[in-house]
């Protein structure tokens, strides 16, 4: 590997308490809210086919019209306590809230621009209310911040002229000032979730961004910042020139989930996920497939089974309501979590061979092993392959600890866990499997000599 001044500053996972807490969250909530919720994916009767929070970039949206929408922003139904309560009931352990999206509108009364909530009819600090409400529910707060800022005069996606560079210096100072301001105003913040950092102009700022990250981490010791924040001096993002991840966890899994444990390269990671295909901000007319709670629960469990966190996005409307579809899904996920949360919280990857019926998770403290079943085989026989010197002794339903499920040895290190549900299975369910580490006697199952 080569020497880098602005590459990864740490190899391997962070082992401090704050990061261990992050690693054990399992489930998070993303909130995308801003003036884009007012048009909600439509303008003058026309339907916007893109992501609602990008509507300003739509050729049919006059920029001046969009940039004056904040003068109508007055979400009378906004109730931060209600949002935080719903997130608690869903089982979210942390929340990531958009402070400023690509359009540059600030949901907090920033003193570095007039394009903020303070200048809207609503006036009050939305970020402050949300931080207090989620803190009160015991849900850790992380702040989303977009480097892209279409409202700031100094913002550039690329630096072509000396004039660009001069303007961009003001933008860099403004960006730094806003981030320092956010951490000063909301010191209970546990981390920053950066977005909009793919522009060439920002990628050239390796030294500035590295120094800014250092300054922010000094303000809040243990602050957690992901891999999407900065590039190294060769323009490499997420992973530096040596292939080492920059930041505390990988932020590449946007609307996608790794397939195997090899895909995560030993790093912490989060998957941020939309309920429709690709809408983060409020769009009044979702098109295409809207994910069911079974799908979302599978994504959550798959993420945990591969040592990641799953962060589900909510896009409140222009009045401050969380839409009925999201409320229903939050309740269905919460009902499942009420019964099964122990397979998520504090759990991670178990190095047993993945089977078709679903996913294994293991509690990192206790070693308790879970089979989370999504696909019941017609035989009722759930195949389990164990490592050498491991013998499964007992299996029972998490929901009915007195249930004694038969385990049949079928090959060396291979078993069937026989389970025939009494009633039709409608939701994923969990079998706890207990093992003994033993020197397996070959018994009936000898490896063939070939
Ligand atoms: C978390 C999401 N990230 C923002 C985003 O723009 N993502 C990736 C993307 C980048 C370039 C064109 C389309 C989409 C979305 O607007 C959400 O905030």
Structure description:
- The protein is α/β, with parallel strands linked by helices and 450 residues long.
- Helix content is 24%, strand content 21%.
- The protein contains 9 helices and 18 strands.
- The strands form 4 sheets. The protein has an 8-stranded parallel sheet, with helices on both faces. The chain has a 5-stranded antiparallel sheet with strand order 11-12-13-18-15.
- A hairpin with a 5-residue loop joins strand 12 (358-363) and strand 13.
- Helix 5 runs parallel beside helix 7.
- The longest helix is centred in the middle third of the chain and has 24 residues, at 162-185.
- It is globular, with a radius of gyration of 24 Å.
- The two termini are 42 Å apart.
- The relative contact order is 0.13.
- The mean pLDDT is 97.
- The structure holds (3S,4R,5S)-N-benzyl-3,4-dihydroxy-5-methyl-D-prolinamide.
How many E strands?
Answer: 18
Shape: globular
Q: Could you state the order of secondary-structure elements as H and E?
A: HEEEHHEHEHEHHEEEHEHEEEEEEEE
Q: Mind telling me the C-alpha Rg?
A: 24 Å
* Low-confidence segments: none
Q: For the largest beta sheet, what order do the strands appear in spatially?
A: 7-6-5-4-1-10-9-8
Hetero groups:
(3S,4R,5S)-N-benzyl-3,4-dihydroxy-5-methyl-D-prolinamide
Supply the helix-strand structural class.
alpha/beta
What's the rounded overall pLDDT mean? 97
User: How helical, in percent, are the residues?
Assistant: 10-25%
Head-to-tail CA distance between termini: 42 Å
Provide the β-strand percentage band: 15-25%
Main beta sheet: strand number and arrangement?
8 strands, parallel
SS summary, helix count? 9
């Amino acid at each position: 590997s080569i020497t880098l001044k602005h590459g990864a500053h740490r190899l391997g996972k962070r082992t401090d308490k704050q990061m261990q807490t992050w690693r054990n969250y399992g489930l998070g909530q993303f909130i995308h809210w801003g003036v884009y919720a007012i048009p909600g994916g439509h303008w003058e009767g026309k339907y916007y086919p893109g992501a609602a929070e990008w509507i300003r970039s739509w050729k049919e949206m006059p920029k001046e019209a969009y940039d004056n929408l904040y003068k109508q922003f007055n979400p009378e139904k906004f109730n931060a306590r209600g949002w935080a309560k719903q997130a608690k009931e869903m089982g979210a352990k942390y929340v990531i809230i958009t402070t400023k999206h690509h359009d540059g509108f600030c949901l907090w009364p920033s003193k570095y621009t007039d394009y903020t909530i303070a200048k809207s009819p609503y006036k009050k600090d939305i970020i402050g209310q949300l931080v207090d409400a989620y803190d009160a529910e015991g849900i850790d707060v992380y702040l989303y911040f977009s480097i892209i800022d279409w409202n700031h005069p100094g913002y550039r996606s690329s630096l072509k002229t000396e004039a660009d560079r001069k303007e961009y210096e003001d933008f860099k100072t403004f960006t730094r000032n806003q981030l320092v301001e956010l951490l000063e105003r909301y010191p209970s913040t546990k981390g920053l979730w950066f977005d909009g950092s793919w522009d060439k102009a920002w990628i050239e700022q390796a030294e500035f961004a590295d120094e800014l990250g250092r300054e922010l981490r000094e303000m809040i010791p243990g602050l957690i910042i992901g891999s999407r924040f900065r590039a190294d001096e060769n323009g490499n993002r997420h992973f530096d020139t040596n292939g080492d991840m920059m930041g505390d966890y990988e932020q590449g899994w946007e609307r996608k989930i790794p397939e195997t444990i090899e895909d995560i390269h030993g790093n912490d990671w989060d998957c941020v996920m939309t309920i429709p295909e690709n809408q983060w901000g409020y769009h009044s007319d979702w098109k295409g497939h809207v994910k069911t709670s079974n799908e979302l629960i599978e994504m959550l469990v798959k993420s945990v089974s591969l040592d990641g966190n799953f962060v589900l996005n909510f896009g409140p409307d222009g009045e401050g309501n969380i839409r009925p579809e999201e409320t229903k899904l939050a309740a269905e996920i919460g009902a499942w979590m009420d019964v099964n949360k122990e397979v998520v919280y504090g759990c991670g990857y178990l190095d047993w061979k993945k089977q078709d019926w679903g996913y294994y998770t293991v509690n990192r403290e206790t070693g308790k092993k879970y089979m989370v079943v999504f696909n019941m085989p017609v035989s009722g026989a759930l195949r389990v392959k164990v490592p050498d010197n491991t013998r499964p002794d007992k299996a029972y339903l998490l929901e009915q600890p007195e249930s004694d499920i038969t385990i049949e040895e079928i090959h060396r290190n291979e078993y069937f866990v026989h389970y025939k549900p009494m009633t039709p299975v409608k939701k994923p369910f969990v079998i706890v499997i207990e093992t003994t580490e033993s020197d397996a006697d070959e018994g009936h199952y000898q490896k063939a000599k070939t």
